[in-house]
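OP here, attaching both records as promised.
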Amino acid sequence: MLNLAVLVSGGGTNLQAIMDAIDSGEITNANIKVVISNNEGAYALERARQYGTEALLLSPKSFPSRDVFNESLLLALKEREIDLVVLAGYLVVVPPCVIREYENRIINIHPSLIPSFCGKGCYGLHVHEKALAKGVKVSGATVHFVDEGTDTGPIIMQKPVMVEQTDTPETLQKRIMEQAEWIILPKTIDLIANGKVHVNDRVVTIDE
């Protein structure tokens, strides 16, 4: 059984998609051990409590230095014997000590087709604003492993979503969540939990 830590800064819609997929059997061989947020007001923490999962507030602002926060985050994961860290709208830079400890065991969901509209400053609605400003006809979502860069880790799964002429950043965000993010993030977790995802020289292969 794969122990998951889901790290979230906001409402936790992707967290809810994971919970629903576990309950429905879409995700097998995995359970959410802890939900961690840097934001005291994050509704994701309430989702965790309602689900019966530990809700842990860890904010960099509550520690005397960033190094102390980094070590505390790593310790929290290790104490709970976490196997896979899932970033589901987490707006804190994951520290190198965590990335090294959990190499190819941290995944992130990004609301575009990487390498488009990713990197520094590309998060939340900013991603969709940039996509619409560029006039793209197709966007989507990407699940990737996390390395020490920003959205630069090996790509695991992507799903395209058509852009409509009447789209606003908000409508495009909603459709990408519904048609891509909430599908490929649970699917990726299930594949990893069942040993079907492999990384070789930054290229990901998936067993059929």
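Record two, same layout:
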Amino acid sequence: MLRTYLLFGLIILNSCVEKQDFDQFDEISLQPELEASVLYVTAPEALINLAPAANFYAQDFNFDAFNEDYFAERVIEGSITYLVENTTSKELEVSVQFLDDTDTVLDTEIFTVPAAPTPILEREIAYGNGGRSIEIIRNTSSIRVIASNLGDSTSISDLPEPMITLRSSGRFRLLVR
């Protein structure tokens, strides 16, 4: 009888043990998603009216966040969402350019916004899978914003504190092994 119990015990122990595969750890990869503000620029209508030329705003912003080694080596896809709000009495054009460290333009996004009242213009640009090249993001070291007045330089909106506002944020997935 003792032999029978021992035999059943060995069979049960052997049948419940599954060979462990410790190589599965090599197949694990994390893909965290990072989201952050990229740009926030405003210009009041009074400034637009004072500008002697059509371009009332031009500014280069140093933006090394995209080409930092940790980010650039791991980013696999993402998007940038732009929100443009115009409460002025003018039709305006806003250009956003991504530049590399030699000031070569890598990508340009142009927004033409009619005079107020208009809804907020929202545009999402994808990079990586199914979008524009992710290399644009990896190589960006500065961002240039140029805003032009396509209207007159005398009218004033009847809305309180009329201005043009450009906001953008980025959301990117990284591959971490």
